[in-house]
Description:
Bound molecules: phosphoenolpyruvate, manganese (II) ion
Largest sheet: 8 strands, parallel, barrel
CATH superfamily of the largest domain: Aldolase class I
Order of helices and strands: HHHEEEHEHEHEHEHEHEHHEHH
CATH architecture of the largest domain: Alpha-Beta Barrel
Structural class: alpha/beta
Strand content: 5-15%
Shape: elongated
Amino acid sequence: MLEKIQSLRADIDELNLRLLQLLSERGEVAKRIGALQTASGASQYDPVREQAMLDALVAANEGPFDDATVKSLFKQVFQASMQVGQAQQKQSYLTSRSAKASDTVVDVRGTLIGSKHSPVLVAGPCAIESAEQVDAVARHLADRGVKLFRGGAFKPRTDPYSFQGLGEAGLVLGREAADRYDLAFVSEIMSTTDLPLFEEYVDVLQIGARNMQNFNLLKAVGRSRKPVLLKRGLAATIEEWLMAAEYLLHEGNPNVILCERGIRTYERYTRNTLDVSAVALAKLESHLPVLVDVTHSGGRRDLLVQLTKAGLAVGADGIMVEVHPNPAVALSDQKQQIDFPAFDAYLADTGYHTKLSEKRVELYGF
Ligand code: PEP
Ligand code: MN
């Protein structure tokens, strides 16, 4: 009796191995289907096909398992196979670490952003308002070692009656000031039709939060080879943000820098909520450099230092901050921009300026 059981158990062991082999073979085929579906843009889940497979299995079922059991066993198999296919799909995203393990380093006119390079500071006014204003800011920043100058010429404003930016004239002023002080110029592009202008005047194409899912803009900018600063949308998930970056990479532009700028939450004490975990996660999931915009995320001058430290502590590759000669009369973001003395105090309080040339490891002890 005991011998008989032992011999049957040996049969079971052998059948287990055969089942495993068949399941593995099935998984490999599912992976190949997943790769083909990814390439053709088709969805992995096909409920009609799944129902047809279950019907065929039930029709062929001769026991001893009842139909419901057969269905539930195979549903598990289908799900496991689909997960294999999906993992395959995820791995193929160009922004993912599995597609490229090493950190991307973006070269902006000789300033290297990403990986172990020192965190950069992107500073400048919210909007370019006049020749005097832009010159004063650019001079002050360049004097303190800043290399990347920001300033909006085309402004995405919530209120259509508020200052919309100087347009092309603003780009010209920004370019001239940047050249005068040997700075790289970062400015937001809102429309595909402006791309030739931006190609001429800017060093970094900024895609604003409100345009993060403007797919035509992403495609057009993706065909450029200029570095891109991609802000996270006001209420975008991390996945949506990375997908937006995927558009840029897919079109052939590898020079993408992500920028967390706070997301909309129920909190009213801050303009937006800085999502520090998104910064850390974006760096884990993707190989792209990540900046933190401390001005728009908090919307408060009294948080700039703390948010800067928080951003750098979770691995940000740089910080964006808005600076204006006289924020009280600024044509946009009056409440958030800081004046020159406040900027100098900010540099001193964050330790950013004096240590700008040092490695992150020395800066923050990790
Ligand atoms: C900006 O940086 O000028 C800006 C408009 O920011 P955001 O797109 O993040 O709101
Ligand atoms: Mn602003």
